[in-house]
Every structure is written in structure tokens, then in C-alpha cells.
Predict the 3D structure of the following.
Amino acid sequence: KAGVTQTPRYLIKTRGQQVTLSCSPISGHRSVSWYQQTPGQGLQFLFEYFSETQRNKGNFPGRFSGRQFSNSRSEMNVSTLELGDSALYLCASKQEYEQYFGPGTRLTVT
Amino acid sequence: GIQVEQSPPDLILQEGANSTLRCNFSDSVNNLQWFHQNPWGQLINLFYIPSGTKQNGRLSATTVATERYSLLYISSSQTTDSGVYFCASGDYKLSFGAGTTVTVRA
């Protein structure tokens, strides 16, 4: 079975722009979660989607949003980028209890 | 939310040495997982271990849910074991520790 895939792998944006990241879960997995990893804050939960619905949300501003499609693929969007949004963004898919992570998208905001 | 404390923060080993990494949790352990983050950033699943003991090659893990801690054992360490090890607990939302950075020297 193919693992979780994320695109793009690397991205450079300037302050004020917006960005969309994509995640394809493991086949058959309906839950997709997003995490942000920074050196200062570590790994933090952004949100979780299940069957096209946002089921849970972490403590991030409204500039961070996401969606899930009928094939379980998910996208997250960050609007009005700030320097502090520079991070590794990881998505994870889950079928029952265990989460499996993709390779991540490394976003640099200049 | 649940607080996860990992120790030690850094570990330097000589190839062939054994080591133990520990995670303490402030609340009930739920769906505990151990990960190894490779140099490119991907989190690789090591164990799903909500309780009990599991072994996979040179790695093994033990979770004592009633006492809110988990241990990861690395035996006969190799340079490829270098990297950051994370434990995490949660249902929809995994709460991660700060990680243990392991460096194995040849």
C-alpha cells in the first residue's frame, strides 16, 4: 500500500501571500490530520478532517484553514503569510488508532 | 491538554551501545505511538503501544499506562539509529513530547 504523500515538498513564499498544501492519505484511510513543526514550538496539531468534515481544530488563527475531498485527499491553506509560519507541515492519515505521517512540506516565508 | 515529557533531551552513543528513552505523561495514556524522525523530516512509525511490551528487531518498547509512562529501548545501536525520537499520545490529536535527539558515533 502506498504511504501518505504530500505536495509540494518545498515551498518559498513571501509575507502576505497565501499557500495551499496537499495531502493524499493511505488508501482506505478517511481521517486526515495536519500538524505544524517548528524549532520553538515543536509539533502542534492544526486540524483533523473525516469524511469531508472538520472534526477537530487546534489553537491556530483563522488564517489556517483546510478541507477534505470525497476521495479523502486534503488541502490546507494559509492566507496572509507571516514569517512565523515558516515550518514543516506534516499530514497524517488514520484508519483506527494509529496515525501515519507523510514526508512533509517545508514552507519558508521570506 | 496532556503534557508529554521526554528524557533525556540528547543522547550520544558509541556504536553498539544500548540505551533507554523515556516518556512521562501528565494524563491518561491514549493510543501511544513512538516515532523516529528521519533527516528529511518524515516521522517513521516505530510502535503503536497503548500498553504492554513490543519488540521489533533491535528496538523494543514498554508502556505502563497505569503509571503514565513509556520506554523505548535501543540495543546494539547503529549509526542509522541517529535522529530524533518522539513519543505521542492522543485520539484525533496527538500530543508530542519535545523529542530525544540520538547521535550514534562509529
Remarks:
- Chain B touches chain A through 20 residues (CB under 8 Å).
- Chain B has a mean pLDDT of 95.
